[in-house]
Amino acid sequence: MNDTLKDGPDIARIASLVGDPARANMLTALMAGAALTASELALEAGVTLPTASSHLAKLMEGGLLTVASEGRHRYYGLSSPQVAGMLEAIMGVAAGVGPKRVRPGPREPKMREARVCYDHLAGEHAVKMLEALLDGKILVRDGKDIKLGKHGATHFAAIGIDVEASGKSRRPVCRDCLDWSVRRSHLAGTLGAAILDKILSEKWARREKDSRVVTFSPRGKMEFERVFLR
Predict the structure, then answer these.
(1) Of 108, 144, 195, 220, whose CB has the highest number of CB atoms within 10 Å?
(2) pLDDT tens sequence across 15-56
(3) How far apart are CA 71 and CA 198, in angstroms?
């Protein structure tokens, strides 16, 4: 029997890259949106630096990572938001069909509540926000796509988010991203990134050190709900 994939993209190649535990840990670490060095990624993966370098070379060759040189250091990051979305979707499948490979503790509930997904907000708060924006017709579903509603640009301009500037990017303004912890969608795309930037710049929430967790202050949570959930 011929096991070669006959039609479509080579899923097996990408799956094999993501499926290795060390490489999976590296990719997950980069979901926080920050670029990391090979030494930092070796620590995340629990492997030696030479082994990490070999894994990184494979991920680069597979198109999942980019690298930038700054001085004597090389910094690795996910190659695109599309790769981040793929990883978030895989996490959702893994959470639904198998045991979780995480350390139990207080960080887990916080991850489910609010976290960074590459460059936008994920978790329970993000899912509720997207549902509220859809219910208010600020955003609308067009088949499988999410688009700005009739008054969407005006709505976001009023709260200090320039959707037109976001639209100049080659990335979509709005993109549906399946949330692994809630199993419903949150908002990605340039608009999702702009909303997270506003949340952090207004100091409604802060990034936890060495984590994807986003922690809202009591006042910040009230402001977030006032602006995005009503």
Answers:
(1) 195
(2) 999 999 999 999 999 998 889 999 999 999 999 999 999 999
(3) 31
- The whole domain housing 26 covers 11-79
- Torsion, Cα of 4, 17, 88, 63 (10° steps): -90
Tokens 């996490």 locate to 91
87 near 28, Cβ under 8 Å? yes
**Residues 205 and 182 both lie in one domain:** yes
CA distance to 7, 11, 66, per residue, from 3 (Å): 12, 13, 31
CB 56 within 8 A of CB 23: no
Would you say the pTM of this structure is higher than 0.85? no
Flag whether pLDDT at 106 surpasses 80: no
Give the pLDDT confidence score for residue 154 in this predicted structure: 94
Which amino acid, one-letter code, is at 210? D
Residues 108, 45 share a domain: no
Q: Does one domain contain both 35 and 101?
A: no
Encoded tokens for 18 = 């993501």
Closest of 171, 179, 162, 174 to residue 126, by C-alpha: 179
Alpha carbons 37 and 56: distance in angstroms, whole number = 10
Same domain, yes or no: 60 and 17: yes
